[in-house]
Amino acid sequence: MGQPKALLPMPGSATPLIRHIATQLLPLAADLLVIANDPAILEALHPLPARWLTDAYPDSGPLGGLITGLRTCEGWCICVACDLPFVQPRLFRYLLSQTSQDWDAIVPRIGERLQPLHALYHPRCLPEMEAALPHGKRRMDSFLPQVRTRFVLNEEMRPYDPELRSFINVNTPEEWDAISGQAHRPPDGTSG
Predict the structure, then answer these.
(1) 76: three-class secondary structure by DSSP
(2) pLDDT tens, N- to C-terminus, the chain (192 residues)
């Protein structure tokens, strides 16, 4: 992207992307925890009540960050990447309704593609997550076969996000430009 994605201003406003996402999800959480090594990201969240931790595994990708955060949680944790401008609280409410003692992870699946950076995890996942890193398994889904994972399919999610826009992420300036026209579109895809 050429700059920190979390700090990009949402199209049509000066709100940093990270604050936009946090504002959407904060009503669903008792605590907001950000794992980042750049203090500017925490500053971008102001005035939201957020805790900040530096990544205990800075060269391990998002999995290291998830482990860092999950170590501080006592129960289910919403995990969301900082590059999802259309995240929908109502979809996360549905995912939260699926939590139980039967599962360790609740992970959306769009077709065959897993969405582990828009998911829920319980600290019960930690032993398998931590075991993956020394073996060079840094992928966010590397530990999922070893934990009890509830995969949530397209059809289940469409009532809460009909176009599955929650999973649109931005990695390039071109993708960021493309979402600019979609930023003010209602979540259900209607025009007004």
Answers:
(1) coil
(2) 678 899 999 988 889 999 999 999 999 998 999 999 888 898 999 899 888 999 998 888 899 999 999 999 999 999 999 999 999 999 999 999 999 999 999 999 999 999 999 999 999 999 999 999 888 888 899 999 999 999 999 999 999 999 999 999 998 888 888 887 665 554 454 433
CB atoms under 10 Å from CB of 64, counted, come to 19
Place of tokens 């959306």: 108
Domains in the chain: boundaries: 5-180
Q: Where are the beta strands (DSSP E) in 139-179?
A: 149-153
Flag whether the pTM goes above 0.85. Answer: yes
Residue from 134, 100, 98 nearest 119 by CA: 98
Per the listing, tokens 């290291």 go with 64
Tokens of 128: 């398998």
Residue 47, preceding peptide bond in cis (omega within 30° of 0): yes
**Domain 5-180 CATH (choose: 3.90.550.10, 3.40.50.720, 3.40.50.150, 3.30.70.100):** 3.90.550.10
Distance of CA 40 to the CA centre of its chain: 19
- Cα–Cα dist 12/18, whole Å: 15
